[in-house]
Amino acid sequence: MTRKEALAILGLPPTATEREIRKQYHRLLHRVHPDAFAPAEEGCAGGIREIIQAYSVLKKNAAAPETAPGAGWQNFGNKRQEAEAGSSRTSSGSKKPFWNAPINENAWMEREVLHYAEDADGSVIGSFTLARGRYLWTPEEDFPLFLQSLLRCSRELLDKADEGLGREAPAARVRYQAELSYLLAQQFMDCTALLTELARKSIRPDESVIWYVSAMLEYTASCAEPGPGTPLFPSALRRHRLYVKDADGRELGYLSFRDDRFYYVIVPLFEQRQVRVRLRTAERAPVQGRRKSGSVPLHLWLQMTDPEGTRPPESLNLKIQSLLDAYRREA
User: How is 34-47 classified by DSSP, letter by letter?
Assistant: First the structure.
């Protein structure tokens, strides 16, 4: 989306100041808020998703000339979804969803799609609900807010369990909530599709596809750190962490990522045995004035074991039910 297109969506002239853009954004966003299910206002050429995207473009390119391309949100360019997004009512006047992400109809429950609320100066003052449904996460939804929506879901499920038993929350509740949130994340994330969208793709001479991700080794071993270029190998999966070892079989630590999204995309693929992996340590950036951290940079290459997607999905609902049953048995 260009700056010119963003201004047109918000109904603003090319001379609009940053303050005018911010005021118009908040005015329009409140008028098309999902709770109201109001049609798009006059002077606004799009629905709620276009309003948010347009503001993002203008906010990131406040000083850009009118002809400069807007950066928009990272990976926002899903033309099919942009074309489908619009006002909150269809031509017949019936209600239309505000969020057009794919839906997992088999998900355990609905979740909220959240958006940051800002004051007139652009400072974040909280969040509000844009939509509620069984929507899969897509990169145009802020990821920390997505995780917050999962925490709300897990809290709601555990609250119902405690209320049904007429008890105070047991000491183990925090552990159950973390596990429940992780399972719900798998229901609302298409890991295979997101890997192809977030990772870097390359094609080998035999035409097989390899995905590259920058990763980290959280080093826990007492032996010396491996130098750059050292090959590493999977050791074990424990508590949703992939532990790795060196060629001598010494377990060195576990895999982590600078981008939290990859944890929820890649670790489930390992747990479902959907990928093959190749690991090699990378060059550590020079550190001045402080000690080395316990993290070692890694090169991570992945290959799907089922590129056609023919393997039947596991039943996460059974895992969620089993987890809730175990929680109810907690003293």
Answer: TTTTPPPPTT--S-
